[in-house]
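User: I'm writing a tutorial on reading structure tokens. Could you give me a worked example: one chain, its sequence, then its tokens, then a sentence or two explaining what the tokens reveal?
Assistant: Sure. Here is the example chain.
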Amino acid sequence: QVQLVESGGGLVQAGGSLRLSCAASGRTFSSYAMGWFRQAPGKEREFVSAIGWSSTYYADSVKGRFTISRDNAKNTVYLQMNSLKPEDTAVYYCAARRTSAVVITIPQYDYWGQGTQVTVSS
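And here are its predicted structure tokens:
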């Protein structure tokens, strides 16, 4: 069983930055694909970004503004969010997949964190 704990959310003005962190338990973190998803009020959860061994993927809405990275020594994945917009407001969830193959679909992730709130004011 893998436990994921997100941190780093908060309130920021439009144009600002935040860095989300997701700390994972377990000894096989480096073999997992990791993803970030978000869910805004009244909307479905959506893909934001994912990372495998070295490959990274981004939703079009965040490409060029968000950067995903991982530190396998610390069992942590990060999401650096720059040039934030009010439409980025959502609960951000970290997810892990028991394989290094990166996917962007929710059902293929095996473990989920509790989420961290990101609010961007205009």
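What the tokens reveal: The chain has a mean pLDDT of 95. DSSP finds no helices and eleven strands in the chain.
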